[in-house]
Amino acid sequence: QVQFVESGGGLVQPGGSLRLSCAASGGIFRLYSVGWYRQAPGKQRELVAGINSGGWHTNYADSVKGRFTISRDNAKKTVYLQMNSLKPEDTAVYYCNTDPRYGNQLLDYWGQGTQVTVSS
Predict the structure, then answer these.
(1) How far apart are CA 85 and CA 98, in angstroms?
(2) 26-58: per-residue pLDDT in tens?
(3) Are 118 and 64 in contact (CB under 8 A)?
(4) What values do phi and psi take at 118, rounded to 5?
């Protein structure tokens, strides 16, 4: 099955930007919807952005609309999350997985994710 590896996180000041990458291997990447999830300490994991297999439809949690943009390059087998105007409440570990809203099965393996910390 497909596997995802996240990268691109880091420490940024409020209002800053980061671009996360989710690199896929295995499976048939172009058939998978992909979502970006995040989990802050003591909080439940939430789905913040998703993109369908063809890349023509996206959706976002209300908390990130207008600030985050998800995109994909099927030739490179990579999904991106451009994060602008970052806020302290965006601090979390960010993961990618399939997006079950498009009918794909959520993978049972969650990787290490990539840490995003927004602070002065």
Answers:
(1) 26
(2) 888 999 999 999 999 999 999 999 999 999 999
(3) no
(4) -115, 110
